[in-house]
């Protein structure tokens, strides 16, 4: 049922519920991906570790379930964890178990056969748990251990999120053997009012080039990122700053944008995200869980729920210095089939222009927009109230210099469409402010779906054209504005704009400015995600 | 004389006995004062104080529990309201079947088979946000069921009860996050 909602090139199991990405790692020339999975239902519950492998992070092959709750220390859930590759190439996994009394503990597991590149079977350390909640930490606020980083003392250091009253914190532990841990004094970071810090991630980024760094990198030319998933608002936040190894503490560059109160990886549907270092291409890769934006009743009808986003590379934006840049892994380009190009398309104020692209449900779109210079200069400044996507009312609200952009998953009669748009506004001092939004409000005639308008302001330097990349895949739309400075993932559920009836348009709803668009659109192939076949899969 | 004295003493003792016994004749569940305070302060943080307090107090075994326990009680109340609605739907389907009614049947089925077990497991195993998801979803399903009748709903009482109890549950779960 509702089969038109299933995606063609995003990771999702055959059926049932999935949530957090777990233990992503590159091992013996396979990318491994594990995930929180309910083998029995399309809602959360009975959680086990699902498993899949790929040569390119796009063409995934399902493997058998890796770990189930078969011990007292994970009887109530084999929850989220991370992989660490030791100096000698050994792989260890730390994960949270919810014990038979629902206490959150950390457990050690490792491949039953390290020479098996598929890592089919896992052994749990017979003296688990290796970590129990320390004094002062509630037994249900202690989960999601990070990948370890090697300190200059030769110890492995991990972080685990928690909270004290409403202050979110990240605990730090050092270990030499992943069996005995020492709790360091103080927190890596603590921020009042943010609540429980789930899925803490803590990693270095280069400040001198765009290459990804091994998790243990430290010193000159290295900045650090602390990321958290906030239980309270189901969003992922990050802060860029400096990490002091001796003090085991992190200081954000901009305290106003501290962990949990500042920037988000994605201003739409994106949670429990986790990065890992890919040594084969020297890049840091980000996974994010994309939940459903429809009702659980429908999820059970269609027998599945949740996707993973297309993995993204993450690096420091060395133009702004204040945000990360995310971009779909280049391997996704291998799915591109036929392309259509539209150069210097002029969209007058109040226009909707169809783009002939055949089927419009599986697309990779790269677009550039230029606002008519004269309009930019002559438009009178508006008030200084910032344009906020969530309260804007969406693409139907007209301004002098916006909104303009694309209508994806639209039907010919425009009864259903999802605008992805820029809104440029001029402040009282004449400076321009650009916001990017993904508008779900008209995406479907169905009533039981999320209709929010999602998005955020985008940093734009003088002289830069407005750029947008979009991956469309049936019921997911991933937008990357300005080269990945601002990302928004949406889930939409059209009932008419499906299969061959789905169309693509350019639109300009500004009142004053003409917009010139140059757009290239590729049809995207399916990734044929399926079970692993020993005879044919290498 | 001895008889009168005996009777008087008996009466006197009887009176003392009656006034010093707890009021077990009122058939009211004994609630430990601390729990009552916790219920009151918790219910103040929900959208419907009265529904919250009545639901918690009416439930046997409400004594000596924490906020997580109160949330678990509310999930049981949710199940009971969902069953009320299902029973009413079945009755109505016998005399006045309709598309809207069938749609409601599947929505309430989803609540009982999906939302409630999800919320129960999440609270028992210690990841409350999935209980919030389940409770919010149940409230929405009740609203969608009601709106399917375009104003002439025979299930208004049941849908309102389901919605209100679910909204209270979601609010209590939020306190755990």
Describe the protein in words.
The complex is a heterodimer of chains A (538) and B (177). With 538 residues, chain A is an all-beta fold. Helices cover 2% and strands 47% of the residues of chain A. Chain A has helices at 296-302, 373-378, and strands at residues 16-27, 30-38, 48-54, 60-67, 78-85, 91-98, 104-111, 122-124, 149-150, 156-164, 167-175, 181-183, 189-191, 197-206, 222-230, 235-244, 249-252, 263-264, 271-278, 283-290, 304-305, 307-308, 312-316, 324-328, 336-347, 351-355, 362-371, 401-410, 418-426, 432-439, 453-458, 466-473, 476-481, 486-491, 503-508, 515-524, 530-531. Chain B contains seven helices and no strands. Chain B starts with a helix and ends with a helix. The model of chain B is unreliable at 20-29 (pLDDT under 50). The interface between A and B is medium-sized, with 28 and 25 residues.
Structural features:
heterodimer; A: 538 residues; mainly beta; six-stranded mixed beta sheet; six-stranded antiparallel beta sheet; 47% strand; globular; B: 177 residues; mainly alpha; Butyryl-CoA Dehydrogenase, subunit A, domain 3; 7 helices; 76% helix
Offer a quick outline of the entry:
The complex is a heterodimer of chains A (538) and B (177). By secondary structure, chain A is mainly β.
Provide the fold topology.
The complex is a heterodimer of chains A (538) and B (177).
Chain A: E1 16-27, E2 30-38, E3 48-54, E4 60-67, E5 78-85, E6 91-98, E7 104-111, E8 122-124, E9 149-150, E10 156-164, E11 167-175, E12 181-183, E13 189-191, E14 197-206, E15 222-230, E16 235-244, E17 249-252, E18 263-264, E19 271-278, E20 283-290, H1 296-302, E21 304-305, E22 307-308, E23 312-316, E24 324-328, E25 336-347, E26 351-355, E27 362-371, H2 373-378, E28 401-410, E29 418-426, E30 432-439, E31 453-458, E32 466-473, E33 476-481, E34 486-491, E35 503-508, E36 515-524, E37 530-531
Chain B: H1 2-20, H2 33-44, H3 49-58, H4 67-95, H5 99-125, H6 129-147, H7 156-174
Helix pairs in contact in B: 2-3, 3-7, 4-5, 4-7, 5-6, 6-7
């Amino acid at each position: 049922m509702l089969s038109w909602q299933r995606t063609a090139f995003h990771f999702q199991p055959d059926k049932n519920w999935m949530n957090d990405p777990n233990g992503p790692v590159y091992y013996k020339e396979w990318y491994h991906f594990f995930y929180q999975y309910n083998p029995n239902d399309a809602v959360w519950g009975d959680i086990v570790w699902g498993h899949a492998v790929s040569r390119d992070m796009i063409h995934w092959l399902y493997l058998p379930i890796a770990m189930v709750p078969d011990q007292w220390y994970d009887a109530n859930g084999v929850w989220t964890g991370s992989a660490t590759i030791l100096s000698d190439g050994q792989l260890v996994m730390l994960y949270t178990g919810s014990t038979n009394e629902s206490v959150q503990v950390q457990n050690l597991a490792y491949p039953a056969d390290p020479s098996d590149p598929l890592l089919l079977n896992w052994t749990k350390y017979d003296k688990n748990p290796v970590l129990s909640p320390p004094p002062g930490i509630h037994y249900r606020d202690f989960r999601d251990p990070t990948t370890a980083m090697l300190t200059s003392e030769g110890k492995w250091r991990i972080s685990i999120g928690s909270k004290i009253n409403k202050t979110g914190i990240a605990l730090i532990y050092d270990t030499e053997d992943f069996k005995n841990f020492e709790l360091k004094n103080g927190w890596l970071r603590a921020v009042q009012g943010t609540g429980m810090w789930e899925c803490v991630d803590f990693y270095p980024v280069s400040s001198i080039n765009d290459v990804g760094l091994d998790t243990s990198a430290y010193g000159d030319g290295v900045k650090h990122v602390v990321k958290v998933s906030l239980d309270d608002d189901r969003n992922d936040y990050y802060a860029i700053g400096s990490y002091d190894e001796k003090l085991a503490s992190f200081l954000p560059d901009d305290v106003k944008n501290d962990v949990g109160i500042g920037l988000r990886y994605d201003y739409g549907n994106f949670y429990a995200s986790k990065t890992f270092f890919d040594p084969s291409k020297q890049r840091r890769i980000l996974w994010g869980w994309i939940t459903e934006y429809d009702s659980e009743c429908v999820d059970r009808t269609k027998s599945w729920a949740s996707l993973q986003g297309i993995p993204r590379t993450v690096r420091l934006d060395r133009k702004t210095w204040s945000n990360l840049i995310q971009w779909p892994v280049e391997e996704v380009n291998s799915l591109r089939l036929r392309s259509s190009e539209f150069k210097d398309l002029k969209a007058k104020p109040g226009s909707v222009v169809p783009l002939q692209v055949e089927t419009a449900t599986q697309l990779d779109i790269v677009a550039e927009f230029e606002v008519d210079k004269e309009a930019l200069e002559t438009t009178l400044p508006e008030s200084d109230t910032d344009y906020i996507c969530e309260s804007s009312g969406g693409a139907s609200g007209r301004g002098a210099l916006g909104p303009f952009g694309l209508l994806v998953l639209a039907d010919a009669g425009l009864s259903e469409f999802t605008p992805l748009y820029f809104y440029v506004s001029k402040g009282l001092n004449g400076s321009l402010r650009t916001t990017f939004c993904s508008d779900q409000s008209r995406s479907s005639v169905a009533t039981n779906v999320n209709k929010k308008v999602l998005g955020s302001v985008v940093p734009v330097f003088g002289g830069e054209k407005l750029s947008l990349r979009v991956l469309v895949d049936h019921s997911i739309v991933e937008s990357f504005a300005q080269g990945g400075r601002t990302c928004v993932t949406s889930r939409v559920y059209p009932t008419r704009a499906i299969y061959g009836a789905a169309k693509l348009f350019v639109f300009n709803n500004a009142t004053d400015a003409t917009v010139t668009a140059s757009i290239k659109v590729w049809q995207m192939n399916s990734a044929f995600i399926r079970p692993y076949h020993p005879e044919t899969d290498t | 004389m001895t008889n009168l004295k005996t009777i008087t003493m008996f009466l006197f003792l009887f009176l003392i006995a009656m006034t010093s016994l707890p009021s077990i004749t009122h058939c009211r569940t004994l609630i430990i004062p601390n729990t009552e305070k916790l219920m009151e302060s918790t219910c103040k943080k929900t959208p419907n104080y009265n529904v919250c307090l009545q639901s918690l107090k009416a439930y046997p075994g409400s004594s000596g529990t924490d906020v997580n326990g109160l949330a678990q009680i509310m999930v049981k109340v949710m199940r009971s309201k969902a069953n009320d609605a299902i029973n009413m739907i079945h009755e109505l389907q016998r005399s006045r079947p309709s598309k809207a009614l069938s749609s409601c049947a599947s929505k309430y089925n989803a609540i009982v088979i999906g939302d409630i077990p999800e919320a129960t497991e999440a609270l028992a195993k210690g990841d409350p946000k999935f209980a919030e998801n389940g409770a919010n979803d149940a409230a929405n399903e009740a609203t969608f069921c009601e709106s399917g009748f375009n104003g002439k709903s025979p299930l208004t009482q049941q849908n309102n009860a389901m919605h209100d109890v679910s909204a209270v549950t979601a609010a209590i779960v939020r306190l755990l996050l």
